[in-house]
Specification:
Helix 6 links the parallel strand 7 and strand 8. The chain is built from 11 helices and 12 strands. Helix 1 crosses helix 2, helix 7 packs parallel to helix 9 and helix 10 packs parallel to helix 11. It folds into 2 domains: 55 residues, Orthogonal Bundle (DNA polymerase, domain 1); 267 residues, Aldolase class I (TIM Barrel). The chain is of the alpha/beta class.
Length: 362
């Protein structure tokens, strides 16, 4: 069983990048190659306790124990969908806050849906995370550790993580620096070496961060949660639209494509009688005309505090057909993990009863 460190004041080792670990090794007066051994132990072998680093001398393992936490997330509830293809884990953080992350198994892919914040400040009305409000940002290491947790589980099953979507709890561009640092760590060639194109970031449309992301010319995929093709409807659903209305958002999207030559994905939760009509599809097609993009539509997943219902399969197909008639590529996404509240927009902390106390509680 993995030991969870009871000293939350010690830094989490996943918050350090490779060069910072090199600096620590130099400070400890150890040979430089020890940094690579530690890095590979963390990001290739997914070791979760200092004792597992058998390639290090005992004295160096003690230094790791005394100076760093390797495990900070405490899994307190694990739910499996009835089809066995989706697993959702509730983690407690050192300060008692909590997050959820999801593993989705497809025929050839093992995709993780990872959180970047505890809660969310964006307040999207149909999203369970937005309904619970903002608790705090995650550190880059806390984002990384969710991936390591699942990578370790998959390794034990002879499998590996293939894709990571930053679409869990939180708005990644509201926690931009930590999110990008986490991706860089997981992308590092001496570690997991996950290609940049295996990551997808989803944002509700924080325009300055879209422009910053474009200027960095990353190969990471970008998805925009759109859900409406006019300002009145979008503002009623996504409050961020008051600050960054569609005109500004679409200008930034077009700048992104022009600057990076990368295709954008637009996410559209189909809500029965709200945004699933043929006329709405035509309006969306006009909004996206000439833009290198793809639309992912998915019937809305149910949440407790929003009365809207997902569109029928027939209306979803009609919406897709109309978009494609106007030259806009469209896919109807498969709903996954609905029975365990693990679908898009469903992640929220529903604490199970009689939890054991978190040993990392401050």
């Amino acid at each position: 069983m993995v030991e969870i460190d009871s000293s939350p004041t010690k830094p989490l080792i996943y918050d350090l990048d490779f060069h910072e670990i090199e600096g620590v090794i130099k400070e400890w007066q150890q040979p430089p190659f020890r940094a690579r051994q530690i890095w590979e132990g963390l990001y290739k072998n997914f070791w979760r306790e200092p004792e597992q680093f058998s390639n290090l001398p005992v004295s160096l393992r003690k230094e790791l124990t005394n100076n760093f936490r390797i495990v900070s997330l405490k899994p307190v509830q694990v739910l499996h969908s009835t089809d066995g293809e989706t697993t959702k884990t509730l983690f407690q953080l050192p300060d008692g806050k909590a997050i959820e992350a999801v593993l989705m198994k497809y025929e050839k892919r093992r995709t993780l849906c990872i959180s970047t914040q505890a809660g969310c400040a964006m307040g999207c009305v149909f999203c369970a995370t937005g309904q619970m409000g903002f608790k705090r940002h995650l550190t880059s290491g806390e984002i990384v550790e969710q991936v390591i947790y699942y990578a370790n589980l998959l390794k034990n099953e002879g499998e590996a993580v293939t894709n990571i979507v930053l679409m869990g709890m939180g708005e990644p561009f509201h926690n931009y620096d930590a999110t990008m640092a986490a991706i860089d760590r997981l992308n590092h060639p001496l570690g997991m070496n996950l290609g940049a194109r295996r990551f997808t970031i989803s944002t509700v449309g924080i325009v300055p961060m879209i422009r910053r992301f474009a200027s960095e010319n990353r190969q990471v995929n970008l998805a925009i949660s759109l859900h409406a093709a006019d300002d009145d409807l979008r503002t009623s659903m996504l409050p961020i639209n008051k600050k960054y209305p569609l005109g500004e958002l679409m200008a930034a999207c077009r700048e992104y494509v022009a600057q990076t030559n990368r295709r954008l994905t637009f996410e559209w939760a189909l809500i029965q009688g709200v945004n699933d009509s043929i006329e709405t599809a035509r309006k969306l097609a006009r909004l996206l005309e000439g833009l290198l993009c793809h639309v992912n539509v998915i019937p809305l997943n149910p949440t407790k505090k929003y009365a809207g219902k997902g569109s029928t399969r027939e209306r979803a197909l009609a919406f897709k057909t109309e978009l494609e008639r106007h030259g806009i590529p469209c896919t109807i996404r498969i709903r996954r993990g609905i029975d365990i509240q693990a679908g898009c927009g469903q992640l929220a902390i529903q604490q199970p009863q009689n939890l054991p106390p978190n040993p990392l509680m401050i």
